[in-house]
Amino acid sequence: MTRSSGRARHVSVAASTAAATRADVRALAIAAHGLDRCRDLDDVAHAATELGVEILQAGTVALCRIEQETCRVLRAYPEPTEPREVWVMRTAFRADDRPALRALIRDRASWVAHAVDTSGEPTAPDDADAGDPAEVATLRELDSASGLAVPVIVNGAVWGLLYATRSLGADLFRVDDVARAEVLAALVAGAVARVDLEAQVRHLVADDPLTGLANRRVADASAETALESGHETCVVMCDVDGLKRVNDELGHDAGDDLLRSVADVLRRAAEALPGTTAARIGGDEFCLVTVGRRRAEVASVVAETISAFPLAHGAAISYGIASTAVTGPVSARHLFRQADSAQYRAKRARARAAKAAIAVEADPTVTAERVVVSGSAAIAAAQSGVVPRLCAFAAAVTETLGGAEWAVLMRRAEGEAASAIARGGSPAELGRATRTTVVEHDTWVVEIGAAEAAATDAPVRTALDALVAVAVVGAT
């Protein structure tokens, strides 16, 4: 061979090596950009495995998590289809059973293993160049020729590993392949550290520390986004009935447990309505924000979930729903306000129903005492004037008797029919049979709602007559 031909061959080899190096650099740069766009660990696993197949010219690449010296596969690409491949990928491996894994964890040592030699023949059991026998056996189970693993080191500790295999007939992994894999693993480690930090920051900024649900800020943003989408948006405002009693009688630890139970109920409801945000607004107030779900579906899911998972200590969830299908285009604040009003009405209805149940068991004397206490307090707290005092009295006593609606009427002249001055209550909320008790004083007529079984005998009638007289006479 002449000197010139030898020099030409050297130049050719050098050029080929430089071209291969440039290709590796470009591939790793692309990998860095791809991993930088990842926003969670699932994104990182997808990017790492798919990019790894290209960079390492591998048949399969898997990203594995190592915890307490146990290795499990987070994702493999391409996804295995053969039963034995699926079984291997789903199996967790202990370092005690895998010497190469133990060395990777303790010494951060990458490794290669080969099920065949360079001629394609199966490696012998005593072949030192074949690598760890346990890893060789795994390659044979996968019908693979060669494998490598490199550690993924996050914040100074072995977080996991990248595992790659090549099929029978392909080149065996060599030192250069391990170097490429280690660079890729370093890029993956950076992405894992970043998304983990971002998740922690999101948790601190967006999550309620007690329940783990989103906070008010996230709920507001979710509602704004849902409204901008143009799809039907619902807000479900929830309130915990009985939290104060639990705190007073059992302590705040029990109250915190109750709030976490409420969060679990709402989390289940949100899971049944994909795209829904469950949030704790503050105190004992929670909400759900749904998008693209009809109000009837939301109401059905919430009712069924609350019914299926009752709260401890006799506590309960009152809720109200507001939907853009009813309100039309509104602001997020208005939608929350409408849902809160509906929740408040539901809470009051529950209280009336509970008092009605008490009224059924109480004798007329006890019921009369309750009427006097609630009615006199309402009159004393009302604004001056006959109508405000009568309205306050009627609303308070109707609630005490478990009724649903009330009215204040007035006769303009003797013998004329009374005309309504004010009405209140919502019969649709109570959902039970009610009746009306009429009390008159001079030109004033007050219609008071009562549960069908509530006591309205002579002692109660006497108390009602006296209170109406106090409301009218005291206002003049």
TrEMBL record:
Keywords: Nucleotidyltransferase, Transferase. One of its GO terms (molecular function) is diguanylate cyclase activity. It is an enzyme of class 2 (transferase). The keyword Transferase applies. The keyword Aminoacyl-tRNA synthetase does not apply. CDD domains: GGDEF. Its EC number is 2.7.7.65. InterPro entries: Diguanylate_Cyclase, GAF, GAF-like_dom_sf, GGDEF_dom, Nucleotide_cyclase, Rev_trsase/Diguanyl_cyclase. Pfam families: GAF, GGDEF. Residues 231-360 form the GGDEF domain. Gene3D superfamilies: 3.30.450.40, 3.30.70.270. NCBIfam families: GGDEF. This is GGDEF domain-containing protein. It comes from Cellulomonas alba.
